[in-house]
Design goal:
5 helices
């Protein structure tokens, strides 16, 4: 992954992590009894965004891949449930409406991250010594 792309992904996940954390803290501390499921989902998504940002920063590629895959699945499930069973969602989360309240970034970001992370696998990212051994 090129350094600028990695930095942009880290920043995007860190910003989403901070935004989702702030939202979930306010929701849970002020009105958790009104909508416990959505507010728990908000907290879980916040934690996942932070984990992904840290994984990208630390170079934990497998953790980042699993995290972004979980994020995409969660977003698609919650987005679909929000549409199919709106009575479950007394309030919004980062993932309801497929991330529409956050400018669709939660929908687009994991797709971009997975493409970047998985594309790297097939680009011949072989350590220099292994390349020298192959020559």
């Amino acid at each position: 992954m090129n350094p600028m792309g990695r930095i942009l992904l880290i920043v995007a996940y860190a910003v989403l992590g901070l935004a989702a954390t702030g939202r979930s803290v306010v929701q849970i501390t002020s009105k958790f009894d009104q909508a416990p499921l959505p507010y728990t989902v908000s907290a879980a998504s916040a934690l996942l965004y932070v984990v992904i940002a840290i994984a990208l920063w630390r170079g934990w590629r497998q953790v980042a891949i699993v995290g972004t895959a979980l994020e995409l699945v969660g977003l698609l499930v919650i987005g679909t449930l929000g549409w199919a069973a709106p009575d479950l969602w007394a309030d919004e989360t980062v993932w309801t409406g497929y991330g529409s309240a956050y400018g669709w970034v939660p929908l687009v970001l994991p797709v971009i991250a997975l493409v970047v992370l998985l594309r790297r696998r097939g680009t011949g990212d072989v350590p220099a010594q292994a390349q020298a051994d192959q020559a």
